[in-house]
Amino acid sequence: MDEPNGSIRLGSENFDLPVILGTEGERALDTRTLRAKSGFITYDEGYGNTGSCQSSITFINGEEGILRHRGYSIEDLAAGSSFVETAYLVIYGELPGKERLHGFTEAIRSKAAVHASMNHHFEGFPIGAHPMAVLSSMLNSLGAYYPQMTTNNREQDLAHLDETAALLISKVRTIAAMTYRMQKGLPFVFPLEKEYTEEFLHMMFSKPHIEYVDECGAAKALDLFLMLHADHEQNCSTSTVRMVASGGANLFASVSAGVSALWGPSHGGANMAVIQMLEEIHASGDDGTRFIEAAKNREARLMGFGHRVYKNYDPRARILGKSAESVLDRIGIDDPLLDIAKRLERAALEDEFFISRNLYPNVDFYSGIILKAIGIPVEMFTVMFAIGRMPGWIANWKEIAENTKSRIHRPRQIYTGHTLRDYVPVEKR
Ligand code: SDX
Fold first, then answer.
1. Which residues lie with the beta carbon below 6 Å from any ligand 1 atom?
2. Ligand 1 centre from 358 Cα, in Å?
3. pLDDT score at 303
4. What confidence score (pLDDT) does residue 208 get?
5. Which of 1, 5, 272, 401 gives a 20 to 30 Å CA spacing to 346?
6. Average pLDDT over residues 400-405
7. For 34-62, what is the mean pLDDT?
8. Half-sphere exposure (CA, 13 Å, Cβ side) for 105?
9. CA 206 to CA 212: how far, in whole Å?
10. Pocket-testing residue among 360, 362, 389, ligand 1, by greatest number of atoms within 8 A of Cβ
11. Residue 1 has pLDDT above 70, yes or no
């Protein structure tokens, strides 16, 4: 597309800068030459107005609540696809034909087991270790078993990408399940090369002598949960993966950093915080009214609400809200937390404080209710988010690695510290 020119005026001077146009009509002022031309940098703490890359993986229109992966709407994918198929789409850019889908599925199915010596790594963690600390370190140490994929040589690491992608998507489940079993003092359960989420639930909940039986459609609900988390543009953890990848680091190191970035309560940790918030409201006998008031007085934050990009309903939250209801119906659970969540949502969507700030439910608002219903403990919720986001992290790493012009990410700053001063020896201080 023709790039109309932009220009900015600084003092008495005009500086012409090119404009970059996206395929969905987004426009960016290309400021890559601004400092050389004007001596100015841009300043945008939190990057709310800054594009860090050009990417063809995921498109979000926050004003309209649109989410698409490689052009396919999340609604269509949720209705017709699976987590593994969506993972393929996110990573490789096209929906796979039957043969490719079978090959990708089998590659994942066959790579679930981890090297036996990794069992000893788990013994080194204290029982109370947070599962996200375990996951991040285990993903990085997993790379030590595949030196051919962790050369930090772009071409060599890319040459092994297909195998590394299948291996990470497969083994992240195994590591998650082993983390859970370790925390509970349970023996590890070997994979049986089942379907993706059935395999995970087996490794989580089977006993050595009694195999887990999915009586409530948990595998199907979990598949939808994981698919809805597959990628989400340049969020905090994906941007971290790209930052680490930009320095030439291998995929294991990059996704390990992504797990650490996801951990915080403002990001992936919100799904745990939502359940804790709902349980506190329930325990206090509040029907949500008092909590809404507290949030409006800034004495509390309505976790699972608000989003940097969505200024409309997060389409994933809408789908997860319906899934939560059907999972609870199937199981026959009448979870008071779902009633409280729906009351909070109704109240917030009618309240000027939330409306004026465009605060709507996000992906984390209902997801915890689903995970809790299928037996995943709260401390594992953000690990589940990481399992779902693995394809998106791999796709973004691949986009950086394949871009021969990609440069190391190294933002500038505005220095606000002391100006030059003389050193004073300690005797004179
Ligand atoms: C995820 O980026 C992604 O794509 C992330 C994600 C993905 O898939 O990767 O979608 C996953 O991380 C979803 C978000 C999960 N986090 C939460 O649910 C935590 C609760 N939400 C907030 O902390 C907050 O909304 C953020 C962090 C999500 C967004 O923060 P912003 O964009 O920095 O917004 P802000 O803090 O500047 O808030 C703007 C205003 C403020 O009020 P004023 O000071 O202007 O009066 O809205 C208020 C905030 O106080 N506000 C909230 C609120 N979120 C914002 N008030 C009450 N409850 C909230 N949840």
1. 232, 235, 266-267, 270, 295, 301-309, 357, 359, 362-364
2. 10
3. 95
4. 86
5. 272
6. 96
7. 97
8. 17
9. 4
10. 362
11. no
Q: Which atom of ligand 1 is the closest one to the Cα of 235?
A: 2
Residue whose CA is closest, atom 44 of ligand 1? Answer: 298
C-alpha 144/C-alpha 148 separation (Å) is: 9
Dig out the tokens for 176 from the structure: 């998650």
* Number of C-beta neighbours around residue 140 at 10 A: 19
Only one residue has tokens 């993986």, namely 57
Q: pLDDT tens digit string along 62-104?
A: 999 999 999 999 999 999 999 999 999 999 999 999 999 999 9
Q: Which amino acid is at 79?
A: A
The type of residue at 353 is F
Q: Can you read off the two tokens belonging to residue 214?
A: 């999915």
pLDDT(4) > 70: no
- Confidence bin at 3 (pLDDT 50/70/90): low
What is the rounded distance in angstroms from the CA atom of residue 188 to the CA atom of residue 181?
6
Q: Which residues pair with 16 in a beta bridge?
A: 7
- Catalytic residue positions? 307, 364
| Interval 342-378: pLDDT, tens | 999 999 899 999 999 999 999 999 999 999 999 999 9
Question: What pLDDT digit, counting tens, does each position of 230-287 carry?
Answer: 999 999 999 999 999 999 999 999 999 999 999 999 999 999 999 999 999 999 999 8
Protein residue with its CA nearest to atom 47 in ligand 1: 357
pLDDT bin (cut points 50, 70, 90) of residue 333 is confident
Mean pLDDT of the chain: 96
User: Which ligand 1 atom sits nearest the alpha carbon of residue 304?
Assistant: 18
